[in-house]
Specification:
The chain is mainly α and about 210 residues long. The chain has nine helices and no strands. The model has no long low-confidence stretch (mean pLDDT about 80).
Length: about 210
């Protein structure tokens, strides 16, 4: 989504992208394609490839939401904007609930492991992350916030690998050397691209508005 932020800034905010930034965008896209096509083996790889357009759409929507949040926090408090985000997501997602959903929820609540993961992940970590991101958006340039937020793949790679080790087996990600190498190269391409994109964009903003 930092790529989409940069492109939309060029289209709608009259910001220009230098050639190095377009190279950075190409690096991010190439890394995303690499991990999508080669992130697994067999049917798992095929599923990743099928999910790629959905991930691109999610990135585009995230970028649009990130930019609109910047305008919102200039007039409203972080808590208010966060509340609208949480209530909006709840209202939309509630429409997808079906009668079978309640049965699945009961089964999940009967599992202590699933219950702990649900409470910690969805009711503590995610809200805390959203609050921090909106606070950063209010305090700093949206391009820089988007770039730093875009470094999440490296943490996801580390956490998913640790949770997939034989001693834990909470996840079932592939941890063979080939898969890990492809993932690591892809992640470094993505992070290198978004960091370059953010640094050059931040430098241009500083030149235009030194105060």
């Amino acid at each position: 989504f930092p790529v989409f932020v940069a492109i939309m800034a060029a289209l709608f905010l009259d910001e220009t992208l230098v050639p190095v930034q377009w190279v950075a965008i190409g690096l991010v896209v190439s890394g995303a394609i690499l991990v999508s096509l080669n992130g697994g083996t067999g049917s798992k790889s095929a599923k990743l490839a099928q999910a790629f357009p959905i991930l691109v759409g999610a990135s585009l929507l995230t970028a649009i939401g990130h930019i609109t949040s910047k305008f919102a926090v200039e007039e409203l408090s972080v808590a208010t904007v966060s509340s609208f985000r949480f209530f909006g997501m709840a209202a939309v997602l509630a429409l997808s609930w079906r009668p079978a959903t309640f049965g699945h929820l009961r089964q999940a609540l009967n599992s202590r492991e699933a219950l702990v993961l649900l409470l910690v992940g969805e009711m503590v970590l995610v809200p805390a992350a959203v609050l921090h991101m909106i606070t950063a958006t209010k305090l700093g340039p949206v391009s820089l916030v988007a770039t730093v937020t875009g470094t999440r793949p490296i943490f996801i790679l580390l956490y998913s690998t640790l949770l997939s080790l034989p001693t834990l087996r909470i996840l079932s990600e592939s941890v063979d050397p080939r898969s890990l190498t492809v993932k690591l190269v892809s992640v470094m391409m993505i992070i290198g691209g978004i960091v370059s994109l953010g640094l050059f964009m931040e430098g241009r903003l500083a030149c235009v508005c030194p105060y």
